[in-house]
Fold:
Amino acid sequence: MTATPASSTPWPATTGRRPRRRGDDGPAAPHPDGSAGPVWARVLRGVAAAVGRRVAAAAAVMLGAATTAFIALHLLPGDPVAIILGPSTMASPEVRAQIRLDLGLDRPLIMQYLHYLGQLLQGDLGESYQLQQPVSRLIGDQLRPTVELALAAIVVAVVLAVASAVATAGRRPGLRALANLWELVAVSTPSFWLGILLLTAFSFRIELFPVAGADGFSALVLPALTLGLPVAGILGQVLREGLETALEQPFVTTARARGLSQTAVRLRHALRHATVPLVTLSGWLTGTLLGGAVLVEKVFARPGIGALTLQAVSSRDMPVVMGVVLLSALVFVVISTAVDLLYLAIDPRLRAEDKGRGPQHDQEPQHDQEPQREQNHEEPAPDMKKAGVKGAGT
Amino acid sequence: MTAIDAAVGLGRRSLTRGRRPPRLGLVLAAGVLLLIILIAVVPGLFTDRSPTGTASVDALRGPSGTHWFGTDQLGRDVFTRVAHGAGRSLRLGVGATVLGVLGGAVLGLAAALGGRAADTVLMRLADVLLALPPLLLALLAMTVLGNGAWNLTLAVAISTVPGYARMVRAEALVVRRSGYVEAAVGLGLRRWLLVARHILPNTLGPLLVLATVGFGTTLIAASSLSFLGFGAEPPTPEWGLMLSEGRNYLSTAWWIGVFPGAAIAVTVITVNVVGRHAQARYTRRTSR
Structure:
């Protein structure tokens, strides 16, 4: 920080972007745009504006990701031509010049950037340095095993998390401590080690599952468990908290009074409330699964996007790495935007309240329901770590 | 991104509502963590073998009284290698955490106090980087930087910066609006003094707590990259690398890969228990 002369307004007016706290702007005005007209027209306008904002934010993130990838490509030390030709090459200067021309490396950087963006818009991710194939085809070929793995892992995670949360939320302390313990272990265990443990036990000791490959269902079991267990730990934690909050609500007493059993109340009423936070985890979840796939595919010698990425990083095949990075950004952005819009449909308060606020504050209305946030509100991004999202990097 | 923030915010609650681990667990975790640190600092205290000394007659022996964790394909004692690898592995995790926190603190403070333009640019950038899976971001950085322990530390640190930056920014904004800062502004305190005396100290507390909790993630990320082969070179004892070497001998000698992985898991678990406890205490103190 450098010293600056004190002025009458010591801080630049950035307050519009500070994290909003409950009540400090007052509850949002019922008709923020102040316009007249029938209610449905206002609502429709509000929805259209909200949808537009979110789609624009998503597009901005994608542009940013593309730019990051482009910058990374140009930060790559060494001559791209040398990387393409490999270390032991006898290529003549003419060949080198031709490659430079083909790649457009002779043009100014800004032209290369615009050209690259134009290509991206047409779905062209460039060509691999090492494999001499279009990146989009390489990714397309490897997509299926990874998608299968990710979906199977989600199933594993959701089933385990729901079972663990429903069985333990608000129950005896001993049971909860047990659930706490398994969640702690699940989020603290490196997924590659978990994979090795499972391989040792179920592929080498008891020869139940294949050691490597991606053929058929039996080859999917261990990798899906490996990828899903850490996720289950986190989902379980969040779900159990949600359940415990829901079980304190008056509607639970009402439902019990109507004669529903404790389990029925949990499954039919409380669980629905508790799943709302789970939906918001989906963006983070996709990131974790895509990153985790790199490790799991390595441990289980599976083909897939992760294996492709690993190979590309090892051989510094930047176009492929960029392609995977863009793909994962796209998946993340599409899913989070879809979830946001879903919320918009579910919760009418969001439509009224986020008028004129940046997209990153859209989560606020939910928080406003929770008085305890008032006391120690902070923008929650790194809390991911605390939330025990230990698997984030694995 | 909205979804992440909301989700993470919900995660936050889960640890603040008085659900700290039991006392016994905390003491146990702290004890084990101290032991691990001691091993990392002076491995010679626990083993007098050499981590790279080979003995082909002893190759692939299972765990026993003489070789607690067994021996690997070259007859090296696995326990000795785990002990000697502790320092290197923990250094990767600590280094990456420190770098990530520093980078995050600088960028977060710049965003919070540097004016609207800086804030917009930095936070949009954070949005972009948070849209990428951390491991992928680290791999992208590895591709640019090239292999090696130092580059690995840097790559992992880079992947954690956006998260810390957002947290510091939020924290600094809250502090900035608090009564004592307003009072200080009213008294005419210079801006840099305000930052140094009030905003920085009050932002760092929660940051240090989060860094403790984040250390586990960072250690796993660092050993993941090591496991994938981007860190140390083979003869070096390093947990992630030992695990990937052990992967090839699972059918005959499970202990080569299992024990280094257990070392990582135990370290992360103990750090998490201690970190969560610190966090619960900190939250209780500040919310009173």
